[in-house]
Structure formats: structure tokens, C-alpha cells
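Issue: ligand-bound run for adenosine-5'-triphosphate - logging full I/O for the record.

Environment: standard queue, default settings, no custom constraints.

Inputs:
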Amino acid sequence: MDDLPYSRLVECYEAMVKTSKRTELTDALVSLYGRTPAELLGKMTYLNQGKLYPDYMGVEVGVGEKLAERAISTATGLGIQTIRELYRKLGDMGSAAEEAAKSRRQESLFREELTVSAVYDTLDRMAKSSGKGSVEARLDLLAGLMGSASPTEAKYIVRTALGKLRLGVADYTVLDALAITFAGGKEARADLERAYNLCSDLGEVAKAVARAGLKSIRSFKISVGRPVRPMLAERLSSAREIVEKLGGECSAEYKYDGERMQVHKDGGVVTIFSRRLEKITGNYPDAVKLVGSSVGARRAILECEAVAVDPGSGDLLPFQQLMHRRRKHGVQEAAARIPISLFFFDILMHEGKDMTVRPYSERRLRLESAVAEGEGIRLAPALRTASPDAIEGFMQRAIEVGCEGLVVKDLKSRYRAGARAFSWIKLKREYRSELTDSTDLVIVGAFHGRGRRAGVYGAYLLAAYDKPDDTFRSVTKVGTGFSDEDLAGLSRRLDGYRMAHPSPRLVSKMQADVWFQPAVVIEVVASELTLSPIHTAALDRIRPGAGLALRFPKFTGKVREDKSPEDATTVEELVGMYGAQLKKIG
Ligand code: ATP
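Outputs:
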């Protein structure tokens, strides 16, 4: 098999960490893809993002800092204390490994050249070793790799093993690079994105486009076991506007406030993916059982909202309750304490048939025949109507039973994987108040706290996602609504995402004390959206020199664990909200 020296990859990484320009990241990837043998495309695509497999497989190398220290020590002959001091001084285990490896460069003059597949395969063996003796096995493998590595290679091997590669290579950057390298130019990105939306696996997309170009990408199909990126809703503030937008008859469904689940059934095996496409099957043994007993089809992909119910009254409970189910231990106990009901609202595949290309009305009928309602299993109630008054009435009933509002759906629309469009439109109670809707924003920077908040961050710089650009644009600085525990918890968590400079994907005029890789999403309410010269969301769109900013923002207490940074409120949505707010004032 053709291979590539790992040193080539590392040269490229060295250039990538130095840049804060996304175009330069793309160029670096294009030149790398141009030199990569076909057999390596998948592996290299994962490696560049610091992974071994697509996220949904949930595979980690399984190396922690302690193990890395020991491996560096074994490979270099330096004592653990020396390695710890290097780590303390440099603040990064990869750099500590590099320094340590330099100190014994003499001995490694005759080392064999490492290849990309050797590095990948060894990391993969580490990820797969389990059970008794697996820690020692991982240690030996990592120390062995480092023994053959140059100091710079050692740095990146350790970062990758620890899951901290952080080159800032976002999915869309990879898609751009693939389009340019294999499909004739950036224009092909939309086709590649569609394939990615259907399989959530960039390695798979890379292999397909390199093998057979655009043609194979255009005929890409969904399959059981590979999660489909979820279809999302736009928002409007009245039933009348929604009916107008959808051009008459539509289907209003209750919008449950729980956790979205994409359920894949393949014979007797049920796999559940979260909204972010993580496998959460293990957290929901009760959901697996419910699906097993109520979905007759052998091969199907369905979507539902899991909602916590009060075991005494049977009432629906708010979203926060469900986050207690996201734990590693005591799953059965949590399932007994916080039981759930599943409310199904879509079907993407039925008996192997791809339903995503069929219109909503047909999917709904198929859903009704595919799911047997019973204890803990329901379909989301749906009302077909063209009357705004009927929708308003339906909305009241939804809110009375503990729903957030409605999602109103276009009868003719196919399932648009990964898209937020007006084929689904949400109508929530908050939209009608003076306040704008809550927003989910990404923490991109922080300001040191003073006084009582010394030692933790006192305020955060927040950004919205700009989809066309694949960047994050600042909208506000928030310091209220945080309890002391919130602040301490967030500080701890964000430390894992610190960067020496603003992320290449961040557009900000504001200077924060500390910068973060876009990763953590929090929910924020605000009194209004205003034009501001300081923030960069929708800069120049409404008025030259001004962007949109949230006024009097406040953290609601919700960290949106279920959202990735690309799922945050988009600049486009903010522009829509600003327009709606003006209308209200007008
Ligand atoms: P929000 O922050 O308002 O919960 P979101 O950004 O998570 O929204 P949206 O696209 O705005 O996602 O709203 C759709 C979400 O509503 C879905 O992800 C799903 O979890 C939930 N939902 C509840 N009931 C339904 C339903 N009947 N049809 C579609 N989605 C539903």
C-alpha cells in the first residue's frame, strides 16, 4: 500500500498552527490531499481533526495525561518529575514531549521513518485495547511510537493521543478542501455537504469523491447506523405569518421540550444518536426497550423527542431534568428516577427505503403506520389546517400540556438533512413578548473576574455562527445570570479549549483576556437586539460600520450540551429576529 511519511503531515501541521486565516488552512489541506494516496484519505481526514473515526462512533484513544507522562518518560529516559516540570513550564503535554525528545536526539539518529498509517494504526490499537492490562498495552504502544518519532512528530503524536490536536480544521474547511482537490473547485462544496449531511462521516465523503468524483457524491444514500444530520426549524412570530409563508395548508405539531433522538433500528439492534450525533444508546436503556416494542420494521430510522415525565403525576418536565440522564454511571437508577416518554415526529428510512426524499405528508402517514402508540410512546400530535386561528388554538393546548409551542411543517417538503429552513417553522410563546427569543451562543473569549470573581472568568465574549462563512462573529459580552457554581464549572471546562490567539474562525473587534476554541454553547436571553460598532455579527448588513449586538444579556443557566458550535444561533437568525423586533416596535 502507498503511504506517506508522517513528517509530511507534521510539516503541514506546523504551518497550520501558526495561522489564524481560514483560507490558509484550506490551502494547506488542499496541498496535503493532493499528495495523499487514495488508501489513506479516510485516515488522514480523521487525523487532521484529531480523531480516528467520525465523531458519532465515539472512539477515543484513551490516553490521559498521566499515561502520556509515563510514555514520554519511557521513550526518552527522562524522569517523570522532569516531564512534569516541562509540562508545567510549557502548559501543553505535546510541547513537553517535544522538549523531552530533543534531549535525546543523539540516540534516535538511526530511527526508522514513521508513516501516516503506522501512526494511525498504532493509535487505533491503543483505542481498541480494553480490559485487564490495557493501560500497560497503551503505554507500550505510545512509548514505542515516540521512540521512532522526531521531536516535532512526538509533539503531534502526544496531542493526538490526548485528543488535543486542535488545528482548528472545521468540517466546512475540510469540505472546501475536498471540493477544490477532487471535484473541480469550491462550487462543488454544496454537493459534498449534502453527502456529509446524509452520513456525518467526512472520511467516507473524502473516499467517495476521490474515487469517483462528483457523480458518486450526487448519488450518495443514507444508511442505517450512520446518523443523518438533523433537519432544523426557522422561526416566525405569528400563526398568520407562518400560514402565509407556507402558502396555505400546513401541519402544526406540538414542539416538545426534551432531547432530540435519532433512532436507528437494524434487526434487533437499536442505536440512538443525539442532536449532535453522539451515540447516547447507553444512557437510554428505557428508550431502546420502548423502540424495540413499538417499531415493527426491521430496518428503520426515526426521529423523536424524549421528554422527562414526573413519575407521580405523569406531567411533562422541563428540558433541564433530562440532562441528569447524560451520565456514565448509575444509568438504570437515573432511568427509574427520571422516566421518559418518546414523541415521534419523523421517519427517514423504513424497511430500507429512503424516506428523506419523500414529502412530509407521505412521511407522516408512514410514521403513523410504523409506530405503535402505547405507554411511553406517542406520535407528536399534528393538526392539518390553513387557518391561523386553528393554529393559535392548537398552540394554547400545546403549552397547557407543557410543550414549548409548535413546529409547523410544509406538507410538500422533503427531509432536508442538516438544513435550517422555512420548511419547518417554530412558533413559541416567548416570541410574542417584548423580549426577543432566547439565543444559543458560543463562548469564544473571557475576561478575568475581579473581587468576588477573582480566579474565575467574570464575563464571556459570545458569538453567533455565520454559516456561509463558517466563522463565528461576536454579538455580546455577558456577565450576569451566572451562579458561583456556574462560573467555576464553566472555567474548568473552558480551560481545555484555551488558545494562544483568537480562533481562525472567529471574527471579533473586541479584545478578550483569554481566547477559546469555539466549543461550548450557552443559552442567553436579552432585552433587545441593537446596532453596535463593536460587534461583528451581520457587520455592514443593516448599517455600514455596525453589527448586531444583544443588549442586557443574561445567562439562563442552560449550557447547551446538546449543541455543537455550528448549531448555535446563526447570524441569519439574528438578522431575522432584528427584523421581527422592528416590526413589533413599528
Ligand atoms: P430550540 O433551541 O428552540 O430547542 P433547536 O435549535 O434545538 O431549538 P430548532 O430547529 O430550533 O432546534 O427546533 C427544532 C427542535 O425542536 C428539534 O431539534 C427537536 O428537538 C424539537 N422538537 C420537538 N418537537 C418537535 C416536532 N414535533 N417536530 C420537530 N422538532 C421537534
